[in-house]
Write a structure and sequence with these properties.
The protein is an alpha+beta fold.
Length: 264
């Protein structure tokens, strides 16, 4: 074989090998991105208002819509043990349980507290706004796995993005939401947990920010597990935003916090 022909053949084989490696790399990236985005759930800023009764539908609902519209059907499709588990968890965090009542083809969502049961419509608008948030957090903690993309021995990584979870809640209950987030994050570190859950939360709640600092000071969460990204109006360019990062120290004190940010 002539030297020139050999070098041309070798060059062509090298190109084929590189092209093959490229396609393998693209496939690996595609699989990684698919796995990541399939692990992301979203709850929007305005959840639908609760109704007194919902028409019962024999549907198995496996996820909660971003506006919480299908929450009644989601709760109604849970098995009794799972619904009781959800109710117990909500009661531990917020002081009231949740039940689903069925009658004549309709269902209702009730809150249970101290032996009393009351329809969610009669409890205030804030409850209807926070229940989809709580249900989504609880459901993601259950660790439902997609075996197509998750190795059997790996943790199930999940990200929940929530806009304004504190809407229409009393400031004290806004602070309790911080406890919910921290409790969910602390559960991921246990050896029995299959879920590595993270949160991306957009909020305007001073109560939640302050409560997170208190929980850091108590040692319930490490400061490195929290980061606050502050968006403010740009002083230099109208219509643009300045972005600033803030963290907590080990005493729960905010670092690099803009002066007067919560002032009015």
């Amino acid at each position: 074989m002539r030297s020139g022909t050999y070098h041309k053949l070798r060059h062509r084989l090298n190109n084929i090998c590189l092209l093959n490696l490229f396609f393998h790399a693209v496939e690996a990236i595609n699989q990684s991105l698919t796995s990541y985005f399939q692990s992301v759930e979203y709850i929007g800023p305005a959840r639908v208002r609760s109704e007194r009764f919902y028409r019962q539908q024999e549907l198995e609902v496996s996820e909660i819509s971003p506006d919480g519209r299908n929450l009644p059907m989601f709760l109604a499709s849970l098995s009794r043990p799972r619904l009781e588990h959800f109710s117990d968890w909500v009661e531990k965090m917020f002081g009231y349980g949740v039940s689903v009542r069925k009658s004549e083809g309709h269902i209702s969502i009730n809150l249970e507290q101290s032996g009393k049961s009351i329809n969610v419509v009669d409890t205030g608008y804030g409850v209807s706004q926070v229940l989809p948030v709580l249900a989504q957090i609880w459901w993601m903690r259950q660790g439902v796995r997609d075996r197509r993309f998750i190795p059997a021995r790996s943790k199930n990584r999940k990200l929940l993005a929530i806009e304004q979870p504190e809407l229409h809640l009393h400031p004290a209950h806004q602070a309790l939401l911080a406890d919910v987030f921290v409790e969910a994050l602390s559960a991921r570190s246990t050896s029995s947990s299959e879920v590595d859950l993270s949160f991306l939360v957009e909020t305007h709640s001073e109560s939640m920010v302050n409560r997170l600092g208190e929980l850091v000071a108590k040692g319930d969460i490490a400061p490195e597990d929290l980061q606050i990204v502050i968006f403010g109006d740009s002083q230099a360019n109208l219509g643009e935003s300045d972005i600033q990062l803030s963290t907590y120290d080990h005493n729960g004190i905010l670092q690099n916090w803009p002066y007067g940010f919560f002032n009015y």
